[in-house]
Design brief:
Elements lengths: L1 H26 L7 H8 L4 H17 L3 H13 L4 H16 L4 H13 L4 H27 L9 H14 L4 H12 L7 H16 L4 H14 L3 H5 L1 H10 L4 H14 L3 H10 L19
Helix pairs in contact: 2-3, 2-4, 3-4, 3-5, 4-6, 5-6, 5-7, 6-7, 7-8, 7-9, 8-10, 9-10, 9-11, 10-11, 11-14, 13-14
């Protein structure tokens, strides 16, 4: 009887504690062999290096990054002679961006660019980390823009706007100028869309690259947004400023004149251009009346 009681107690212990052990073991199982495994098998690395990258690669894939992207990054790094420990640091930057729910594509592209240019891994990690910070700030600005009334009308608009704002921040446009631009879009009524914030941000960043200060660039684009000009007109600000600079004007003088021209333009111009960009639907011709034939 005592023996049976001991067996029963042992069975209860196994039932109570066995499930967590099994769950923990299954959680630690590696992903099924795929692109990552094939890449590591083909890599000219020591067994220790392969094991290190395999563990980190699996971690990044489980964070939500596509396995093909992880394998491709490792392959590029190995080809450039990057040591496994340094590759782990680059993968960490990518994984952190994904865990923060940031657009991971720009971070991956920045890492790939650095590898292609043979930039030291520590510098690549620093630049990619800074970009992640800009994307985080950008994401918060875009979320605030939505709360202020800027509408998302199509899939992908929010991410494109987030990437555009991050690019502008990286080019030296401070967050307060982006907030000012966002408020101008939000006040434009029916035109308060995320796509207009995106194009306004892109053009602001480009005007800064052409030599304008961030404040003057955002004011110039803001004038076009407030006036209700079309997307085509907003994108055309780059060419108009470039033409002024070709005539010998400074970027600042050209932008000042450009803002004066924008404020004097009729808002109707935007409506006409929008209609040109969106062709009207063709009306179907009316069917001729049916003629009854004799004898029917």
């Amino acid at each position: 009887m005592a023996t049976r009681r001991c067996v029963g107690i042992a069975a209860l212990v196994v039932m109570a504690f066995g499930v967590p052990f099994v769950s923990q073991a299954s959680a630690q199982e590696p992903v099924k062999p795929g692109e990552l495994s094939r890449t590591l098998e083909a890599a000219n690395l020591s067994p220790e290096g392969k094991a290190l990258l395999r563990a980190k690669g699996i971690e990044v894939v489980r964070a939500g990054v596509a396995e093909g992207e992880v394998a491709g990054l490792i392959q590029r790094g190995v080809a450039r002679g990057i040591q496994p420990a340094e590759l782990v640091s680059l993968l960490d930057v990518v994984a952190r961006a994904k865990r923060q729910d940031l657009p991971v594509g720009p971070v991956l592209d920045k890492v790939k660019e650095g590898l292609a240019k043979r930039v030291p891994a520590v510098r690549i990690a620093g630049v990619a980390s800074r970009l992640s910070g800009e994307l985080a700030t950008s994401r918060d600005l875009v979320r605030r823009a939505e709360r202020d009334g800027i509408r998302v009308e199509a899939a992908g608009e929010r991410q494109r706007a987030t990437e555009a704002v991050a690019d502008a921040l990286g080019k030296g446009v401070p967050p307060e100028e982006m907030e000012k631009l966002s408020r101008q879009v939000a006040r434009s009524g029916a035109r308060a869309t995320m796509s207009r914030l995106e194009v306004g941000t892109q053009v602001t960043a480009d005007l800064v690259s052409m030599g304008l200060s961030p404040r003057e660039a955002s004011e110039t684009v803001g004038a076009a947004l407030v006036r209700g000009l079309s997307r085509r007109d907003i994108e055309g600000l780059r060419e108009r400023l470039g033409q002024a600079m070709k005539r010998g004007e400074s970027a600042e003088a050209g932008a000042t004149q450009l803002r004066e021209d924008i404020r004097s333009e009729r808002p109707e111009k935007a409506d006409k251009l929008e209609k040109m960009e969106k062709p009207e639907k063709m009306e179907k011709p009316e069917k001729p009346p049916k003629v009854e034939r004799p004898g029917r």
